[in-house]
Amino acid sequence: MTNLSRIILSGQTIDELEEYGMLETNYLTASQVKKTLSELNQITEQTLRDNFKPEVMNLKEVYCNPFDDSFFDYLLEYFNKVKDFYFDTAQQNKAVITYIIN
């Protein structure tokens, strides 16, 4: 499977923005957005369901709340929103910038 963590931390940074309190500003080029969308589109709801392990997430203290099977629908909703965003962005041939604010 592809490492899609580049959606948040691409490893391509814009260091000049740190002075504005943005700790790490990352970007994906328009062609990288299209590649990322292609990879996102390969992930089906069933693939997500098969890999959804709330007990492991709880052990690793992912986020601050305990997970159970009912949380899957919430995650699926936001996964689909990310896919929609990447679809729209790819259609417009635009890049993506992500950042973390301190």
TrEMBL record:
Source taxon at top rank: Bacteria
Gene3D superfamilies membership: YfbM-like super family
SUPFAM superfamilies cross-referenced by the UniProt entry: Hypothetical protein yfbM
Stated name of the protein: Uncharacterized protein
